[in-house]
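Researcher: Before we compare anything, I want clean individual predictions. No alignment, no superposition, just each chain on its own. First chain goes here; please echo the sequence and then give the structure tokens.
Model: Echoing the first chain and its structure:
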Amino acid sequence: MVSAREVGQPAGDDAEGRVAAEIVRIARDELRLDGAHAALAAGRDAPLVDALDSLARLSLAVAVEDRFRIALDDEAGLAVRTLGDLARLVVARAAPELLP
């Protein structure tokens, strides 16, 4: 299990960027989060709290769990502040064959 402390560590390759792009695609195409995808597409430093309300964050978390077959626990969830944080967490937890 990845600790909240490890969420901020950079990825070794561009897997993080591909995962971030997939998260933006999920927000736009699957969840139809109006306006949120534009805010998230602003970059990996896009703050999730500012871009999404609590229901949208929950919907996105569930969709990300489903897409990458991971579980996001409360501890890690509290450490996720930006799109980049979420992408790093996914890269750390997902099986490599599930990454874009």
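Researcher: Okay. Second chain, same rules.
Model: Second chain and its structure:
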Amino acid sequence: MGSGEYDEVGLVEVLRVIIQVLRDVLGKAPSAGLLLDKYVKLALVVDEVINEGLLEAVDKDAIKKGLRGKAPWE
């Protein structure tokens, strides 16, 4: 079950960054209904953070910069 490369504390920080970026991108706090409605945006944010199973970006500004031009927002 996992390689043990990332511990719980590190993963909590990753989740915090994902939530912060989603708040910025969606314009409000993410909720279950909002995330289902804007699933494409959620998938793009997670894709920017995790690339081919490896943690890639955990800086909020770097993630938002990587999102630009990835796909048209609906």
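Researcher: What stands out in the second chain?
Model: Residues 8-67 form one domain. Additionally, The chain has four helices and two strands.
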